[in-house]
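#struct-queue
[09:14] JT: dropping the first one here, sequence first, then the structure tokens:
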Amino acid sequence: MHVWPWVILAQVLPWADFGSRPCLVHELLLCWTSHNWARRFMAAADPEFTIGIEEEYLLVDQGTGRLAQAPEGLIAACQSDLADKVSPEFLQCQIEIGTGVCHTIAEAREDLRHLRRTVAKHANAHGLAPIAASCHPFADWKEQPHTDKERYISLQRELAGVARRMLICGMHVHVGIPDKDMRIQLVNQLKYFLPHLHALSTSSPFWQGDDTGMSSYRMTVFDNLPRPGLPPRMESWEEYSSTVDTLISLNLIQDSSKIWWDLRPSSKFPTIESRICDVAPRMEVTLTLAALTQCLTRMLWRKTAEGDSWRVVENFMVAENRWRAQRYGVSEGLIDFGRKALIPFTQAVDEILELIAVDAAALACEAEVEAARQIVIDGTSADHQRAVRDDAIAAGASHQEAMAAVVASLVADFHVDL
């Protein structure tokens, strides 16, 4: 007996609304795919949504506030205490830390506090101090030597002058998602919220002593790299892997770690990795950003599991919000693409917190995500740095003295929550 494809699909998909005539087969297959995702992930065990945080710091002279190269003894002492949770970075004035796998924000707080304290202690033994700001207020990138390791020599060779300007620091948040295809689905959806996270994190208004007018000048520098920016929409892990493998087969990259998107599947771990944020001077701001990332990921997973995935907005539109975050931080609004309107940043945060309320409760980080409201009220680090500069000038300081005062405030901020 001949059976039309839509009759078979109607039996398989009794919840589909066919109306007065059968849907086209390809439309039904798309519908089935969407609901199959829902059944698949509702049936699977919930991910734990573990997190890991990476931060990059700059080392400054305690007396002058100028950048200083990390002595070998400092790196060795840190590694003796922290093992592989600390490492040198591309430039000799930088140091990078990474927490272990944490199940809660409270656990991440203890790990990150220990890491920051340890780096600060060993830096102090050499007359240095770490700052967690994405750009040094007055340093000249042309004066900064890179670390003498093959990895960094190769990077310098490959990226030429672009690499030399990378006097910037970032903060990355990993969220554990075991299923590879789900990682891709969540990258597609989470990128909508990247500008919101970026705006809250902004800490780089100055570059080589000048006020750039930006809240995050770091992003201006970073976007000169190849393969930066918002991740393209992918339909599956297979499509993502095929794309990466093409670049590897052409000897254009060694592995996916050279794909510097704002959000990507990690090259090393079963995680998605948010890379858009400036590094935060204060530890508690880092934890708020991490908690928001963790909760947004869980919310999007939950909605996908319920068959109600977040609408994927084209990169061209999300990039407009990315620019507004980079330029204004939290002082101006972002586009709400559902309303097709600019909304105040306070409203955007209120609506995000409402969206993730269930998830914050489940992940025990309600206080941390709620702190996002205070960041909007008080301003970001970029706002604070400008205020320190303005106050110093008003008190009679020279421009250079005012910039040194900004660095001193960043040193103090690093230690506030420790």
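[09:21] JT: and here's the second one, same format:
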Amino acid sequence: MVVSHRYDFQRPSIKRTEEGIATMSGNIVSVDEESLKSDLRELVRKTVQETLNALLDEEADEMVGAERYERTAGREAYRSGHYRRKLVTTSGEVVLDVPKLRGATFQTAVIERYRRRETSVEEAIIEMYLAGVSVRRVEDITEALWGSKVSPATISELNKKAYVHIEDWRNRPLQGGRYPYVYVDGIYLRRNWGGEYENVSVLVAIAVNEDGFREVLGAAEGMKEDKASWVSFFQWLRGRGLDGVKLIVGDKCMGMLEAVGEVFPDAKYQRCTVHFYRNVFSVVPKSKVKIVAKMLKAIHAQESKKASREKAKAVVAELRAMKLKEAAKKVEDGIEETLTYCDFPSEHWTRIRTNNVIERLNREIRRRTRVVGTFPDGNSALMLVCARLRHVAGTQWGNKKYMNMKHLEAALDDASIAG
């Protein structure tokens, strides 16, 4: 209900009702606030429209060299009516009467300025959606900012434009030279498949290039993390220029391990120690997780692979003494693939024995995709993931040196000399 404020200019007596609304006797003036705001908005919109059209006419006069209907020897062109176009401004939608000329092409700085504004508006809408803002929220924001609501169909069309640029980035040639260290992982998102909802895996890879900088290599829809998906993913990366791979870091996935051996036979595999710990914790009572964590970390705190192996044997024996046979079995069977990092420079160990560098990106992706919930298809999920990856890659994350690769070069030179 709209409450009207009433003012009596004859100083009437004022009585307050039970509802708290003042009633007054005598002649009154009633002001509807909502109606007033609407009238003011329309007044501003019309003023903007009239001002822009006046500017267009002035520009046309300058180009023609004469005012409308003026006869002069300096005239360079003639007016030929107008054509209309709509323009969304911060004051609402306005209709422009754009002059048509004979003998010259009408060019206007007014239109160009607002065209740039329209482009920035489009980019803002795309960024909002790709950042995980719901379509309904985008509609509300655009109505609040620009006075007109952007329809879901418009958002869809704008996203198609964005997808073209994202797809170009996703398939760009890799130009970082050689990529000694590669980190891979799969992130699961929900999508609609034939009317049913299911999880879809998006495979992600980042790397440290030969200059020591991190680089997002790419992402692709993997359906499931099986061998076929990983082989296709690795072949796609290699086809775009992934070369010189010495170590691939990731969680243990048989499909991925088989694919690494097939596509990058010279590369070694490092199982993420954090994921390894979690796997061991899954068979450890909650009351003993902290002490087991200290035992496992002690293995990877040793100064050499030989010392780590010896420490692992001691941990296995201690776990068995604690009646944690399943945990002891997991450590005994899996410890070796967590020690591959020891074959590389000790200066790099803390950077290459876990998948933390890609896990942080995954957390950012999950934070953004959580707003969307379920994606309409796999491609929209992939595009949103790639949009976030491209954004992160353009920040300090990708411009800050991550490792000093001279240590690796020296180690490889020593190995070649020894060989």
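[09:30] RK: nice, looked through the second one.
[09:31] RK: The longest helix spans residues 33-64.
[09:31] JT: good to know. Residues 345 and 408 are 6 Å apart (CA to CA).
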